[in-house]
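Escalated from tier 1: iron/sulfur cluster holo job.
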Amino acid sequence: MQNRRKFLKNSLITAAGAGLAANVAYGSNPRLPGNRQERNFVYRTLGRTGIRIPVISMGLDSTKDPNLIRQALDENIMLLVTHETYYGGNSERIIGEVVKGRDRDSYMIMTGALDVNTVDEEKGLYRSEASGEDLLRRAEGCLQRLQLDYIDIFILSYAARRESVFFEPYLKAMETLKKQGKTRFLAIATHSFQPEAIRAAVDTGIYDIAMTAYNFRMDNLQEMDEALKYAEAADLGIIGMKALAGVYWDQERTLPINPAAAIKWVLENENIHTVCPACSSYEQLYLDIGIMENLKLNEKEKHDLLPPQGELSSGLYCQQCGRCIAQCPKRINIPAIMRSYMYAYGYGNLDHAYRTLCSARLDPTACRNCTSCSVNCAMGFDVRTKILDIARLQDDMPDDFMVPG
Ligand code: SF4
Ligand code: SF4
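Tier 2 regenerated the structure:
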């Protein structure tokens, strides 16, 4: 047992290390910085905000390197996407230092905050004890760490069912933040029940933006595309996340998903205004910049998006459809655990993996007594094996692991 633990820990640390150095398997010959004036990025208007932004933004869940963020801003990346939970709040602190002295109109910061204990992931709702005051207090924390007077886009995290988007304590708190000038724009972020959440965001009349998972692996794309058209008609800005669909096809990280192909595939839908892949290296930054100069998906890239044959075809991406939960007699929060698995092995992001595993409240013995698993996963995952694997991560979780409270 001890050896297996050690193996898991070592393999994840290796994966995380590789992730921080090169989270995505990019080519070994990144483009060098060019003359910014010669760049011809594709820009899109972020819905009713009226702001034209490059079609690729910078996700900051996998880097703490201030120089990389500086370089991205110098290269005209405009939107930095963070959250109070990224590196226990340090992501926001680093951004605050990086943007000091810069023209406030030259960049935008999107961040969010929420007590994850108020989220009922199975139902896609917030629990009744969730309080708007807590959300306001957390937003203040974001502002203090960023050392800014206002946030550009403040996110309500874990929006899912329509009722969650209309959940009054949070809805009122979000409106208050905007009225007080603490944020310019309001957004929801949704990982599950996305079409319903996007439509609800439009119907509230208060949201400017929805940030949603969207990638070539999702099996409800028709429903998603209809919701995105609904959003477009109402001028809701759309930010795509999870474009890289788990980053790798396999746990050992030998079969990368072609990142340029995956991002271009998302951006073929013009109702997605920008995507925010995690950027943790200069190679990634310059690949993103190269993509923005030519969004056309070529034949090889289309071919690269075909799943490999055999058992690897299920990949690492959990689409958070939630169909598994009712199939498990113990009602394990399988979507959150599969998300943690994807963060650990696919994205190489242990910080995210730990945090997500915490929110899942997994009993590490839960699957041991099942001789066979009754869950038929929509993506074809061997759910039991993955749960037993990632449950061991809990044993290695640092004692001081925490999010700002
Ligand atoms: S584990 Fe499978 S069934 Fe469950 S949410 Fe993920 S993709 Fe859907
Ligand atoms: S093995 Fe499958 S059915 Fe059994 S507890 Fe685990 S997830 Fe549920």
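The chain has two domains: 2-12+312-395, 23-304.
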